[in-house]
Specification:
This protein is of the alpha+beta class. The protein has five helices and 16 strands.
């Protein structure tokens, strides 16, 4: 199998995540490899949903192996990590469901094991973002890559691609946060999935990262005793929240400033 198109190449940007809390609760989700570029350096990070990892005592991440600089389909590399939640940095604004961790330590650990893995870095540049902003409107189609409700290609270790339409005005931050609504179920396993814009009929154009899919959760305004439940535990509204890519970049910049890199 030879994946050549730019869209198909994004399949190598995701990593399947499985977590377990101290209480024994297990869940799964998605993270992806993102490269933040400054004027002088580039910094690769793993990005996912904060709610997926914040209480994780144990974590497992599944990568696809590399052979001759190509993906070795069906051959995985699994990392089992204790005290998983301590690896992740979250945005100070806890309303933003974002968690990041530097990818370089993972790469070095994997390289020391002697088992190379295949991955593709996602990134955002201003020209691409400007192009997307001019083309996207309410009801435009977007895609996400992930592992919803355990659906993924276990044989080849690949995620699946799903499509949904924008369901809230992009010019307005949904609920006053840097996010918007996507008309697509945000099921277990899909949390942390990268949301991309692409035109399948124009394979010469690279897909552009628009944001990250998270679960709707409960929304209430300050002072309200009972907020409106967008999604309860027993009901799936068929909607997902997309945290905008600018919020992901902001989280990375805050981390780099805190650590003295920029």
């Amino acid at each position: 199998m030879n994946l050549q198109s730019a869209l198909e190449q994004t399949f190598y940007s995701t990593v399947r995540v499985e977590v377990k809390t101290q209480q024994g609760k297990q869940s799964s989700g998605t993270c992806f490899v993102f490269e933040y570029k400054s004027d002088e350096n580039s910094y690769p990070f793993l990005v996912t949903a904060r709610r997926l990892v914040e209480e994780a005592d144990e974590g497992r991440m599944t990568f696809i192996q590399s052979k001759n600089n190509a993906p070795a389909f069906g051959k995985g590399y699994t990392l089992d990590i204790e005290h998983f939640s301590k690896l992740w940095y979250s945005h100070p604004d806890q309303e933003l469901d974002i968690a990041i961790t530097p990818f370089v330590p993972f790469v070095k650990h994997i390289e020391n094991s002697g088992v190379p893995v295949h991955f593709k870095l996602m990134s955002v540049d201003e020209p691409s973002q400007a192009r997307v902003n001019s083309q996207l409107n309410l009801a435009s189609d977007l895609f996400y890559l992930g592992y919803p409700i355990g659906v993924w290609d276990r044989k080849n270790l690949l995620p699946v691609l799903r499509k949904g339409s924008i369901a809230s005005p992009l010019s307005i931050n949904y609920f006053g946060r840097r996010q918007f609504v996507l008309d697509i179920p945000s099921t277990s396993g899909a949390e942390g999935s990268p949301v991309i814009y692409c035109q399948p009929n124009h394979p010469e154009e690279d897909p552009v990262l628009v944001g990250m899919l998270v679960k709707p959760g409960t929304h209430s305004l300050p002072g309200e005793s009972n907020g409106d439940d967008v999604a309860s535990q027993d009901e799936d509204p068929g909607m997902g929240i997309v945290v905008r890519s600018e919020a992901i970049i902001d989280t990375i910049q805050l981390y780099l400033k805190e650590k003295g890199f920029i």
